[in-house]
Write a structure and sequence with these properties.
The chain has about 80 residues and is mainly α. The chain contains 2 helices and no strands. The chain is flat and about 65 Å long. The N and C termini lie far apart (about 65 Å).
Length: about 80
């Protein structure tokens, strides 16, 4: 009996979680408005623009600092342990 219950819950959980997503466009609550326009701009931002993360929030990172093999310069701070 417990095995059946576990199987039913295992199958039902993903269905329940997938049903909780919202598909309609986001709108401010009734009686509220979107934030004012940014300083220097005449137009307010749309909900899609407000939800888009800034570059600072998601920086583009380059993991390869050196593009080719080259000799390293002497590092005066690379000292042996004392």
């Amino acid at each position: 009996m417990r095995i059946r219950l576990a199987l039913v819950l295992t199958a039902a959980l993903p269905l329940a979680l997938s049903a909780c997503g919202q598909r309609a466009a986001l709108q401010p609550p009734p009686g509220e408005t979107l934030p004012p326009a940014p300083y220097g701009s005449d137009e307010r931002l749309t909900t899609e623009q407000l939800l888009e993360p800034d570059v600072i929030a998601q920086p583009i990172r380059d993991t390869e600092l050196r593009t080719r093999s080259e000799e390293r310069e002497d590092d005066p701070f690379d000292l042996p342990p004392e």
